[in-house]
Write a structure and sequence with these properties.
oxidoreductase activity, acting on single donors with incorporation of molecular oxygen, incorporation of two atoms of oxygen, 5-stranded antiparallel beta sheet, metal-binding, oxidoreductase, disordered N terminus, globular, Lipoxygenase-1, domain 5, alpha+beta, binds fe (ii) ion
């Protein structure tokens, strides 16, 4: 080791440092350690000039790595400079994952990641060693310093990097080495009450206290949960600080740590002061300013102690960034970008338009990553390679927490992308494997299905790591092992195909947000007749009259008993292009009758295509009506499947992706850029943004990208996101409020005598019944909270951060819709309550309602197919004859084939699962999230209200009169039941769009 003799010292303590090395490297005898580029982008002599200056220049990698520390050089002197010490640690941390062996040097950079086992052992045995070495080298005692001055006790809760990332277990060893070699974590408190008299600024700022070294204070270390450690601290109190309102932290360790909280037990004159941090603190060299954390008292900007205001503003400037450059892992910058990262312009198959930034293709903004543009199109951002895709930038504190990673969520998503998808692509070109019968499909859940044979599948089995294969492909080498049986076929394997269940899922399934009351008959189109000709419905009274339970059309319309699931206008403009691909589908309209027992029945399905000669000639439509026997019954079944295919597309692209995931991201970005962590609205909303940027970034890499899983598995194919952007044109923020949405769809009318002020058109509409309970609970909570901080409308108008936030949401985040007249104001306390309630509703309950039912209902593909490869057979064709003879086979040949079904089931199984660190509505990550007692009480009240709602839901699900709550498939409606266990439960409302 360079210069200081540490290597010799460690060796004399009997430490075999080569045992720390877990990577694989070639034999290293041809590569110059300092001069060649071999372990990072620059040569080590450029990266570490201070070390190079005192090092033997001509050594090879083998010389250094073979004898690890000895090989780093010869002693030149006994004291290292601070820079040398710092560089040394950094260099060591890079090298501990590299191991020379007898492979050729051309394989130098082949590394392995399996450091977990060794790291645990190493971690404990090295601690004592480093303490001893520290004493030896620096004469330093690790005993706590004694002091006669005022002392304050406290606690720091943090997680070391190694606890969070099982690819980097060496970090803790290096950190301990650093502590002993004089590199520390230091903290400086900032006074909320005493000004910095030495500051040259005109406005006052809080005095910054003396730097104190965290490690010097530590008296005990106790693990709290897996990974978290509490450090009890006792330190000399700097009396000039008075009340600490914030602290600066400087990390001189080589690796980052996750700082959770810091609590001071008894600050003289002030008692307990709590800082909630929940943030990654990287080594100081990555930051231009020291990291700052504020005490957990919320203040409106104008009420913030004047001495803290400059710090509050500077922190927001840091988070906004400067709008340029590529953002790196440690960055914390929240900024906006267009969806220009989905395409690969060099490949015609994967070229797509930029989504967002134009009136033709408007879209919400995503988080900026700053990756360089592609060479062929400077407006398209380059994509990461498949291998690097998990490293896509999101602001550091937005990345998935460790538990989620250890639940293999990220790995599963990656596996889908890296291994399964290319193989599915290969199979596409080969023979398409069909399910031969519904019995075959059932075998997915019983373990009896044989894998389709062929090279590609063999390759899947060989390529996917064994851990992932178990989760994903579930093969024991013979057949696919079991997927869990989706709820929709658990009680009865065929009830899904009944008309009653088909209709019920529009009220209580995974997409209960599209059905509308039909107010005029026949249904009309809003498409421009000049472009699309006559697109009004061709359904007439004679099609449906015999299904109206003895009534007539006029009466059922008047009695609010006729409903429609209308996807005609959404898909028709794209139908010609979609059907020019391998997809063969229709734009559909479904009419439903509300029966006397409160259930719906489908009475007509209209299947429409563009006129083959010209769009202007209008739609060519076919009307199918219910039939029980013969080929008509089979045609009716196929018609329902086309509706389910349309509904699956709308569900995934619109109800789920666009209306929750994509629309929330601008709020996440604007909140972090414009509202300080001290702002009460930041504290209110922050839990509802957890993991959203991360899952959306993963979605851009894997799911919605050109050639991604969505394009592969949904009938909309390459037009998926483009189509989604057309529908965003009609998105309106205030209409996302559940009561407004129900009214707009005719599913409720205002009625002050009804609960929540609304009377439902279909009384037993489970999504609406439970949704209104949850909506009202959220609204009451938000009202209780906001009225504590905003005493009058002036306090809203004068809140500069709130005003900037709302302006930015409108003008930047949802900038393509900034001129829409529907944008609500932010001028009154009521505006704050209304707007925040909508945001929380979208992020929590709306997302849960459309997300966690995916596996329960669509885990069985015949119930919710996602694509079709054939149109309805016409009479006098061989296909028509086949339909008569083997209807099940024709059905399966029409909907998603086997491999796409597997891909789709695998994906929705991942997306429908709760991880073990999920935080549900009414819960907070940290009980001390605010020190304001009234909001804490209101939050407790909110939690109790949600418990009451759970009891009510349980009771309603047992009430057999409420037929829509369980239906013929006997699946109770639990998608808005607030709490849940982990896994595939079909219930639970997480706080945020997190999966
Ligand atoms: Fe989701």
């Amino acid at each position: 080791m360079v210069g200081c003799g540490v290597g010799v010292a460690l060796t004399s303590y009997g430490v075999d440092l080569s045992s720390m090395i877990m990577g694989i490297l070639g034999d290293g005898h041809e590569i110059s350690f300092w001069i060649d580029k071999w372990v990072c982008e620059k040569s080590l002599m450029i990266e570490y000039p201070a070390l190079f200056a005192i090092e033997k220049k001509g050594v090879f990698v083998l010389d250094c790595m073979g004898g690890i520390l000895r090989g780093y050089g010869r002693s030149k002197r006994n004291v290292l400079t601070a820079q040398e010490k710092y560089d040394l640690g950094s260099l060591m941390s890079q090298h501990q994952s590299i191991h020379t062996h007898t492979l050729k040097s051309s394989e130098l950079r082949t590394l392995t990641c399996n450091k977990r086992r060794r790291g645990d052992v190493l971690d404990s045995c090295m601690e004592d060693l480093f303490r001893k070495v520290g004493k030896l080298l620096f004469g330093k005692s690790d005993a706590k310093k004694k002091s006669s001055r005022v002392q304050v006790k406290g606690k720091v809760v943090l997680m070391k990097k190694n606890m969070l990332d099982f690819n980097d277990l060496g970090a803790s060893v290096m950190d301990r080495a650093y502590e002993l070699f004089g590199q520390h974590i230091s903290i400086q408190f900032i006074s909320a009450t005493h000004a910095d008299t030495g500051s040259s600024e005109k406005r006052p700022r809080g005095k910054v206290g003396k730097e104190a070294i965290l490690e010097d204070w530590i008296s005990t270390i106790s693990p709290v949960t897996a990974g978290e450690s509490t450090y009890e601290i006792t330190f000399d109190w700097d009396e000039e600080i008075g009340l600490p309102g914030a602290f600066l932290v400087k990390n001189l360790h080589p690796s980052e740590f996750y700082l959770i909280t810091l609590t001071l037990e008894d600050v003289p004159g002030h008692g307990q002061v709590h800082f909630v941090c929940n943030s990654w603190v990287y080594p100081s060299k990555y930051y231009t300013k020291d990291r700052i954390f504020f005490a957990n008292k919320a203040y409106l900007p104008g009420e913030t102690p004047a001495l803290l205001r400059p710090y509050r503003e500077e922190e927001l400037e840091t988070l906004r960034g400067n709008g340029t450059g590529m953002l790196e892992e440690w960055d914390r910058v929240y900024d906006y970008a267009l969806y220009n990262d989905l395409a690969e312009p060099d490949d015609e198959e994967k070229a797509r338009p930029i989504i967002g930034g134009s009136s033709d293709l408007p879209y919400p903004r995503r988080g900026r990553t700053g990756r360089p543009p592609t060479e062929s199109d400077p407006n398209i951002e380059s994509r990461l390679s498949l291998i690097e895709s998990h490293n896509i930038y999101v602001p550091r504190d937005e990345r998935f927490g460790h538990q989620k990673r250890s639940d293999f969520l990220a790995y599963e998503l990656e596996a889908v992308l890296k291994f399964l998808l290319p193989e599915v692509e290969a199979l596409y070109d080969a023979t398409i494997d069909e399910f031969d019968s519904l019995k075959d499909v059932m075998e997915l859940y019983t373990g009896g299905l044989k894998l389709p044979q062929g090279q590609s599948l063999d390759k899947i089995l060989k390529t996917i790591p064994s851990l992932i294969i178990k989760e994903l492909v579930r093969s024991d080498g013979e057949g696919l092992s079991k997927y869990s049986t989706p709820q929709v076929i658990q009680a009865d394997p065929s009830a899904w195909s009944s008309d009653e269940e088909f209709a019920r899922e529009m009220l209580a399934g995974v997409n209960p947000v599209s059905i509308q009351l039909l107010k005029e008959f026949p249904p009309t189109s809003k498409l421009d007749a000049k472009v699309y000709g006559n697109q009004h419905s061709s359904i007439r009274s004679h099609h449906i009259e015999e299904h109206l339970d003895g009534s007539n059309v006029e009466n059922v319309v008047k009695a609010n008993r006729l409903f429609i699931l209308d996807y005609h206008d959404s898909f028709m403009p794209y139908m010609r292009r979609i059907n020019a691909t391998s997809s063969k589908v229709y734009a559909t309209r479904t009419l439903l009758l509300l029966q006397n027992d409160g259930t719906l029945k489908p009475i007509a399905i209209e299947l429409s295509l563009p006129h083959p000669d010209d769009d202007k000639l209008g739609a060519i439509s076919k009307v199918c009506t219910p039939a029980k026997d013969g080929v008509e019954a089979e045609i009716w079944k196929l018609a329902k499947a086309y509706v389910a295919i349309n509904d699956s597309g709308v569900h995934q692209l619109i109800s789920h992706w666009l209306n929750t995931h994509a629309v929330i991201e601008p709020f996440v970005i604007a909140t972090n850029r414009q509202l300080s962590v001290l702002h009460p609205i930041y504290k209110l909303l922050h839990p509802h943004f957890r993991d959203t940027m991360n899952i959306n970034a993963s979605a851009r890499s894997i799911l919605i990208s050109s050639g991604g899983v969505i394009e592969k598995t949904f009938f909309t194919g390459r037009y998926s996101i483009e189509l989604c952007s057309k529908i965003y044109k009609n998105w309106a923020f205030p209409n996302q409020a559940l009561p407004k949405d129900l009214i707009l769809r005719g599913m409720a009318v205002e009625d002050s005598s009804s609960p929540h002020g609304l009377r439902l058109t279909i009384e037993d509409y489970p999504y609406a019944v439970d949704g209104l309970e949850i909506w009202s609970a959220i609204k009451t909570w938000v009202q209780d909270y906001c009225t504590f901080y905003y005493k009058n409308d002036d306090s809203v108008l004068n809140d500069t951060e709130l005003q900037s936030w709302w302006k930015e949401v409108r003008e930047e985040g949802h900038g393509d819709l900034k001129h829409e007249p529907w944008w609500p104001n932010m001028n009154s306390v009521q505006d704050v309550i209304d707007n925040c309630t909508i945001i929380i509703w979208i992020a929590s309950a709306l997302h849960a309602a459309v997300n966690f039912g995916q596996y329960p209902y669509a885990g069985y593909p015949p119930n919710r197919p996602t694509l079709s490869r054939r149109l309805i057979p016409e009479p006098n064709t061989p296909e028509y004859e086949e339909l008569k003879e083997n209807p099940e086979k024709v059905f399966l040949k029409t909907v998603s084939p086997q491999v796409q079904s597997l891909l789709s089931i695998t994906l929705i199984e991942i997306l429908s699962r709760h991880t073990s660190d999920e935080i549900y509505l009414g819960e907070r990550e940290c009980p001390e999230w605010t020190m304001d007692t009234e909001p804490l009480k209101a939050f407790e009240k909110f939690g109790n209200k949600l418990k009451e709602i759970e009891e009510r839901i349980t009771k309603m699900n047992k009430d057999e009169r409420l037929k829509n709550r369980y239906g013929p498939v006997k699946v109770p409606y639990t998608l808005l039941f607030p709490s849940s266990k982990d896994g595939l439960t079909g219930m639970g409302i997480p706080n945020s769009v997190s999966i």
